[in-house]
């Protein structure tokens, strides 16, 4: 029944969502090329604010737990499970003070108004998951960037989204490079719940009335642990915080 009801609502939702992407694409360009990084960052923040408001039309609500645990004034590496594109929208807005930059697949770097522009020009990195030689220097560059500017990298070690909410096994390489080249960073595990329900029917129609939760876990100072410990503690915290 929900799927049937969702069809007409989804049409309205995607029209609003697409309108926001289309409007903010030239706004981003002007902000970046005329006013610089800070203006561009603000335009991305507010793009994602309006995208969240679009999801409110389909009954989606959000809750971020324990944000006070996130250290300030230091590089941050957010390590999270991945359930849908709405993970990224929410993290950009609700964690905006940390200037989140993403490790994303290269396919997202073209063809999507606003989104592709931000990924190419906003400090995130685009990697070819089939070419490890290309991925290593790209992630290394992101590590050095967050180390220099005290900003945040977001990595989804599962590699692909979980279609059922159940976490997949975490890959180590990306996080290992981030830790190696951002030695003053803190690794902050994040558990995401219910985002997958937004796309449980696929792209269309969208799931209705979902409550997305993002639980922040205890930060781990890179300098205080060997990488194996960071990896184990991060994965354990994320997985235990996911409710199936």
Account of the protein in words:
With 244 residues, this protein is α/β, with parallel strands linked by helices. The chain is globular and about 50 Å long. It is 45% helix and 16% strand. The protein has seven helices and eight strands; from the N terminus they run ααββαβαβαβαβββα. The relative contact order is 0.18. Strands 1, 2, 3, 4, 5, 6, 7 and 8 form an eight-stranded mixed sheet that branches.
Short description:
By secondary structure, the protein is of the alpha/beta class. It has helices at residues 2-35, 37-56, 86-94, 115-121, 132-149, 173-181, 227-240; strands spanning 61-65, 76-80, 100-105, 125-127, 152-155, 186-193, 211-216, 220-221.
Oligomer state equals: single chain
Helix content class = 40-55%
Strand residues, percent: 15-25%
Radius of gyration: 17 Å
Identify the overall geometry. Answer: globular
Average pLDDT taken over every residue: 95
**Beta strand count:** 8
Helix segment tally: 7
Note the main attributes of this structure:
single chain, 244 residues, alpha/beta, 8-stranded mixed β-sheet, 7 helices
In terms of topology, how is this protein built?
Layout: H1 2-35, H2 37-56, E1 61-65, E2 76-80, H3 86-94, E3 100-105, H4 115-121, E4 125-127, H5 132-149, E5 152-155, H6 173-181, E6 186-193, E7 211-216, E8 220-221, H7 227-240
């Amino acid at each position: 029944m929900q799927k049937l009801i969702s069809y007409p609502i989804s049409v309205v939702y995607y029209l609003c969502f697409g309108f926001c992407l289309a409007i903010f694409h030239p706004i981003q360009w002007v902000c970046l090329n005329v006013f610089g990084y800070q203006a561009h960052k603000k335009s991305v923040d507010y793009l994602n604010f309006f995208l969240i408001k679009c999801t409110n039309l389909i009954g989606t609500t959000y809750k971020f737990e324990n944000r006070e645990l996130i250290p300030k004034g230091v590089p941050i590496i957010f390590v999270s499970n991945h359930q849908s594109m709405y993970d990224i929208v929410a993290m950009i807005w609700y964690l905006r003070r940390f200037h989140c930059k993403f490790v994303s697949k290269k396919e997202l770097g073209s063809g999507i108004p606003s989104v592709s522009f931000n990924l190419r020009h906003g400090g995130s990195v685009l990697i070819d998951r089939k070419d490890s030689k290309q991925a290593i220097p790209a992630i290394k560059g992101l590590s050095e960037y967050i180390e220099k500017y005290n900003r945040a990298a977001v990595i989804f070690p599962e590699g692909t989204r979980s279609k059922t909410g159940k976490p997949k096994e975490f890959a180590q390489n990306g996080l290992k490079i981030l830790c190696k080249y951002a030695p003053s960073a803190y690794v902050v595990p994040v558990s995401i719940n219910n985002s997958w329900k937004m796309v449980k029917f696929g792209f269309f129609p969208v799931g209705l009335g979902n409550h997305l939760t993002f639980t922040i876990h205890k930060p781990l100072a890179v300098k205080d642990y060997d990488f194996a410990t960071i990896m184990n503690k991060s994965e354990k915290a994320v997985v235990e915080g996911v409710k199936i």
